[in-house]
Design goal:
Chain lengths: 516, 420
């Protein structure tokens, strides 16, 4: 081989085996692509092709790489006719796509967006093993098979994250009508891969955060049509399609448009919201570990509030101190705005405000620690100064319920039993009639604007035969109206049900926290 | 104190009767961010729009709409919660009546009393299956004589979800309404032009955003995580009175930095470009300002690119006067970027409406896209962002005054070098 540029030699030495393979398989395209991406001049690539083309050197049917109008094209030569030069056929589309030149980028002839979309492949930042993602997909497909759903289109941020790891700060949930929130994941019951659909601006984020191997990008407009067209070309549009109709995303208008297009292709469309929500209800050991970390982060936030709370500061400032401490500990952002409500605002589900915390105020704080988007909830009640004896007594009665809770919870406990035991305690303590709310709901993955999970329980609701299974995580909320117009006390803990035990995650005292 | 129809709720009869009854009426009256006159004017404009569109009744369920018409704001709207907690809360407006009726759950009673100027509040039975709450809504609206015509709902909003929206639509039809249509655009259109008070709040929000940037400029160093930077910014904004923003104040760094990445535990390193895009929030009004921070000594071509990019602001301010075509302004801007040789670097260049927002999104309905040369008209006293995304993290908020857009933040529109 003639000595060429250093790049050529390196390229050749690294590729001989591959070229031999391609020679046998007839696949020149990868050779050409690698050559171009290595920055080889076109003439060097042509030399390579001539030496290694499976179709012979320089003869009819050989591939030629040519620069035309500042773009590199690949052509297959046709047989030469008498008296004519070599004709050139058009390149097949798949090779046309491969005709990229680094020189295009460096010369500024390619847009920054095109260059990044082609060349930028950041390392994967996924919080679970590929095996775990594969297991999740299989469980979803099993459930789809049981429900006779052929295709499931996931649009809920939690579902998308659960299946692929993809996560974003914004999902176009409420913007202009034209910015259809159609990003999502298609899962087919017969295929062990999924397709992630997203807009071009999220391609790099998708590569960075998701394990998706098949990422389809649609341009800004007409997204529903493009998704349907892509699914059709995959042969995935037959039978029953499930959409997550109880999710806030996409909005009703886009969801109906999507359904209409799917039905136009002969599909039957039903609600498939329950599929991933139910599969997610039981957490893996790794998920439980993340929620435990989230619990520790929540405690750090609550401890910071205990350390910093004082009269004169605003609710927002105290909330920010919790957020700051949790961020420093590696905690991510809460899906629901954390709550600091003081005085009469303690009996409402309001966001932290600019109201100043006053001496004598009761302050209720509710926040989540968040780790890899897994949430763990904690809420406590502070008193700025000593409370009245009646208030202190009521809160103490509420706090003592935590010991009852701890001694009651166990894996496989019927929900009705937990409801009954706790209600009995509050009735005997004489505070049941003062309840604001007693009960709880599922915890796990959450994205804005809500962290409240799908499965809830409440002594006022019939729980039927349901039990708390190992792998489930819920919170337990006990809030009570207080005497002396003091407000409402809040006490929330997160409960984790494991194989052999159940535990409360928070180590922050459940007693009233008096800030002197 | 204004009178609130406390007697009309039918739920929550047993829970906490003793202490709760004592507590009734002890919530201080709301301190609404706008005068009652301004709320009345908003309602009037909405009714006029309804008349033009042939809509008899609106049932508004988006947090932004409820906040706009009567000040109500909550932490939780049940978007993703159990189906046993259906998100039925909403505000009814009738074209022929100068009052609105808000429907909600008893649990939100105190919050309503503390935030909303709505005089007519009806409470639904305690959370349960949608049919129970809908029965109350239909009965109450029927008793008012508000059913029977064309009903408008917000089909392009995230609340209610699709399934619930269809259930609600069915309830309206079943109770004698002629049809239910999408009224998202008429409802959003009423909010597009801002009053002087709204603009004042957005200016305050822009100031809060500036505080965030000044803080980050002072503290950002290599070795910090993105979340630590975020924590510093949030703390500073809260001290300036800023509320929680509708989208997290994104800190994104390094080679994988993208505008929509979630703030992470990544350790910021020397040589990183850090994208920081907070919104200041005041009375739920948002102002967004984004900048790029270079950790270390930035390359001169990057500084120059930011300078060139920022110069587009002057063009926007000169050309995007009220009444001007958005497409024409977009062409002017695009030509500028082409002439300066940076257009090929473009991502999203353009802007969108800013105003009231609740999680998870602050992007408004009106937008202009320089690449698409979108058709439209700039209006006086509207507020938009402008993103000069030509390989640069430059976003600012502008109010469109009679003489042209005015930038609300004074933070320098340039690449910020830190730790150098």
């Amino acid at each position: 081989m003639r000595a060429g540029c250093a790049g050529l030699s390196k390229f050749i030495s690294g590729s001989k085996r591959m070229i031999e393979r391609y020679k046998r398989a007839g696949g020149v395209c990868d050779v050409i692509r690698r050559g171009l991406r290595a920055g080889l001049p076109v003439r060097e690539v042509n030399r390579l092709l001539q030496r290694y083309s499976p179709l012979g050197c320089r003869g009819p049917g050989a591939w030629i790489c040519v620069d035309l109008r500042h773009k590199t094209h690949l052509f297959k030569t046709k047989p030469r006719r008498k008296g004519q030069g070599t004709d050139i056929e058009s390149t097949p589309p798949e090779l046309e796509r491969l005709a990229i030149s680094k020189r295009e980028t460096m010369a500024g002839r390619m847009s920054n967006r095109e260059a990044i979309q082609q060349h930028c492949h950041p390392e994967l930042d996924a919080p679970f093993s590929l095996q775990e993602y594969s297991d999740r997909l299989n469980r979803i497909r099993d459930r789809m098979a049981r429900e006779d759903i052929d295709l499931l289109y996931l649009s809920d941020p939690e579902s998308i994250y659960y299946v692929s790891g993809y996560r974003a700060a914004a999902y176009a949930s409420n913007g202009p009508k034209e910015w259809q929130p159609m990003g999502g994941i298609a899962v087919h019951v017969d295929h062990d891969r999924f397709i992630l659909f997203e807009g071009p601006d999220e391609l790099i984020l998708a590569r960075n955060t998701s394990v998706a191997r098949d990422i389809r990008i649609f341009e800004s407009l007409a997204k529903t049509e493009r998704v349907v067209a892509a699914l059709k070309s995959e042969g995935w549009l037959a039978g029953t399609v499930g959409l997550e109709m109880w999710s806030f995303r996409p909005n009703r208008a886009v969801s109906e448009q999507f359904q209409e297009l799917l039905e136009g292709e002969g599909c039957r469309v039903i609600d498939g919201t329950d599929i991933v929500r139910d599969v997610r209800a039981i957490k893996s050991p790794q998920e439980l570990s993340y929620i435990e970390t989230a619990g520790r982060i929540a405690d750090i936030g609550m401890q910071a509030a205990i350390d910093k709370a004082r009269s004169g500061m605003t609710e927002i400032e105290l909330h920010a101190e919790m957020t700051y401490a949790m961020a420093k500990a590696g905690g991510e952002l809460n899906a629901l705005p954390g709550m600091v409500n003081a005085g009469p605002r303690s009996c409402s589900l309001g966001t932290a405000s600019r109201r100043r915390i006053m001496p004598g105020d009761l302050v209720v704080l509710d926040t989540c620690g968040v780790y890899n988007c897994y949430h763990a909830d904690v809420a406590r009640t502070f008193s700025i100064g000593k409370p009245s004896p009646a208030v202190a007594r009521q809160i103490e009665l509420s706090s003592r319920s935590v010991e009852v809770l701890k001694s009651t919870i166990r894996p496989h406990i019927p929900v009705s039993e937990l409801n009954s035991v706790m209600k009995d305690y509050y009735v005997k303590a004489g505070i049941w009639e003062d309840r604001w709310w007693i009960g709880g709901y599922e915890f796990g993955i959450a994205f804005a604007p809500d962290w409240v999970g799908y499965h809830m329980y409440d002594p006022d609701y019939d729980a039927g035969e349901r039990v708390f299974r190992p792998g489930e995580v819920v919170n337990f909320e006990s809030m009570f109206y207080l005497p002396d117009n003091a407000g409402v006390s809040w006490l929330i803990n997160t409960i984790m049900f494991k194989d052999a035990e159940a535990e409360l995650l928070s180590e922050i005292t459940s007693d009233l926290i008096v800030i002197e | 104190m204004r009178s609130v129809e406390r007697a009309r709720f039918s739920g929550d009869q047993t829970a906490g009767e003793r202490n709760r009854r004592v507590f009734d009426g002890l919530i201080p009256p709301p301190d609404p961010p706008f005068t009652l006159k301004e709320y009345a004017e908003r309602l009037q404009r909405m009714r006029e729009q309804m008349a033009r569109e042939g809509i008899d009744l609106l049932y508004l369920m988006s947090p932004a709409a409820m906040n706009y018409f009567h000040g109500y704001k909550a932490r939780w709207y049940r978007e993703e919660s159990s189906t046993k907690w259906p998100a039925l809360a909403g505000t009814a407006i009738h074209v022929n009546h100068d009052r609105l009726i808000h429907f909600d759950y008893p649990r939100e009673k105190r919050l309503l009393e503390g935030t909303s100027v709505a005089e007519h509040v009806r409470f639904l039975p305690y959370e349960g299956i949608p049919a129970t709450g809908l029965e109350t809504i239909m009965r109450e609206l029927g008793a008012e004589g508000w059913l029977g015509g064309v009903v408008g709902m917000e089909f392009h909003c995230r609340l209610p979800n699709r399934a619930l929206s269809q259930i609600i639509e069915f309830a309206f039809i079943h109770n004698g309404c002629r049809r239910v249509i999408d009224a998202t655009i008429p409802i959003r259109s009423v909010r597009r032009v801002k009053s002087p008070q709204e603009i004042a709040y957005i200016e305050q929000a822009a100031h809060i955003c500036q505080v965030a940037h000044e803080t980050v400029r002072d503290v950002l160093r290599s070795g910090m995580t993105e979340l630590e930077v975020y924590g510093e910014a949030v703390r500073a904004m809260s001290r300036a009175g800023g509320e929680t923003s509708a989208i997290e104040s994104s800190v994104s760094s390094g080679p994988s930095a993208t505008p929509h990445a979630m703030t992470s535990r990544r350790v910021i390193q020397k040589g990183d470009l850090v994208f920081f895009s907070p919104s200041g929030v005041y009375n739920r009004y948002h102002a967004n300002v984004a900048r790029g921070y270079f950790v270390g000594d930035p390359p001169s071509d990057l500084i120059e690119r930011y300078r060139t990019s920022a110069a587009s602001y002057a063009l926007l301010m000169d050309h995007a006067k009220p009444g001007e075509s958005t497409a024409k302004v977009c062409r002017t801007l695009k030509q500028y970027y082409r002439d300066t040789g940076i257009w090929h670097l473009h991502g999203f260049v353009g802007g969108y409406e800013l105003g009231i927002a609740f999680p998870p999104d602050w992007v408004g309905e009106f937008y202009f896209d320089v690449d698409q040369e979108t058709e439209g008209v700039f209006l006086e006293n509207e507020v938009t962002s402008y993103e000069s995304g030509v390989g640069t993290a430059l976003i600012d908020t502008f109010v469109y005054e009679a003489n042209g857009p005015r930038r609300l933040s004074e933070f320098p529109a340039e690449l910020i070098a830190v730790d150098n």
